[in-house]
Amino acid sequence: MKEFDMTCEDHGPKTASDHGSCSPALRNRYFRGKLLTVADYKAEQRYFIERRRMVNRAVLGWGVISGFSVKTVDERKVEIGPGVAFDKRGREAVACEKVRLNERDDVVWLKSGKVYDDEGGKRPASSGNYILSAHYAECRVDCVRMDEGCGEPSVEWNHIRETVVYSLQPRDDHSAHRRCHTSGFSPTVCNDPDAKQWNLDNEKKAIVAGPTDRGPHATLARWSADWLENSDLCTVHELCTWKGLSFDPSAGVPLAVVAFSDGGCGGFFISEIDEVAPRRLMRPNDALYDLIRGCDLTRIQDVGWGDWHGLQEHVRRGAFRRKFVTPPSTNSKPSIIDDDDSYQRGAGEDSNPPVDTLFWVCFSAPVQIASLTPDVMSIAIIRPDDDDRGVVRRIPIERLWIQEPLKGDPEGTTRSFRPMVSWKYWDGEIKPRASSGLERVNRVEIHIHCDSIIDWAGQAVDGNAIGQRFPSGNGTPGGDFASRFTVDPNGTYPPPHADGAAAAAPVTAA
Fold it and tell me: Rounded to 10 degrees, what is the CA torsion of 92, 97, 101, 102?
């Protein structure tokens, strides 16, 4: 008689799926004479449900698909219309009819993603802004009597009805906005005092993406790998049972922010509704949506003069001068230094060492060092003349101080640089007691030409200055970061000593 291996042990290559009894990857294999039990039927149902939900969350995303309108009716009560949404576990939340919320017990009160259960299960009494969310829920219906022939009869629920339940949780506990992906890089730390300078290889050229390569494959590959590694792709998330309903408190789909006030006697009032900003919308593909938003683009994270950017107040002349680092010796001509690979030299550089500045620029992701030349930044001072048209004087930028790559960043990239200006300019225009136009009100314009700054993926930095916010960007590669402020001998910003510098102690080089 032929012997069969009944141990079910793995003798071949390793596999990637758990095949335990509760695994969502387990499905029935049918054969003649197979005895089907309750466990087999549960496995059959679980397999198809979980596979469908996995496709929902991995391919389609989550959020509101349509419907779920929120409005106030009858003395500031809330009415939620029918709708369909996917939650972040891939469950389909389908509301077939509108629901009116009249009393506090009509919703589930949540705190930090859990059912609020304090002092005997009382709901929070404080008024304020709350996130209104929709949750997929199940309830057991249709009782049947079970007579098994021996012992007492039992009662079982014959069906499960899928429905939707609504929750309120404090707005501070919830963030509905989806942030752009970081492509696996560590966060940028601007103006790091421990940052070291990078030695440049002037022969290298920046690698630029092709004209049709709007979404670099390298970025999409990083997103794909990172999303999968940080997901619970094959995990079955059980529902919590509360007051006859089974639902997931941590997987609500945000619909609106409502201003709640206690109405007393179990009622409540809604005085204001915002169903735009907090509403999570489902997209057919998160990667494509993020490309449209420009999430793959590198932006200017911050600049050394960020608090002056677009400032209406006039900047104090002393504060502006302190942005130029005083050379080690100001009483004698500095010694000539040898040219090395630590800087990018510009045309017409004099023999004295350039003067460092605090006009640093830092980026949200790595940029290619080879694309950073003195031409990527310009600083101009517009001085008034007799005709009130202004005379433009450009500050000569001779070199760039470039920060060494951060750990984990691609080779040949950096997160920050700062310009180094001509010593002659500093000696004649900036240093104390220098005869310059700073005795009058001057307009300063700083431009960062981001079309020339190439990031790690070969795309131009999204540098458009939009208002006074950081990071920069309008969702398209390239652009010009333009910043303007006014320097005044009688300026009021920052207040005296508020910028951390003593009145008679200018910043000096180490």
Answer: -160
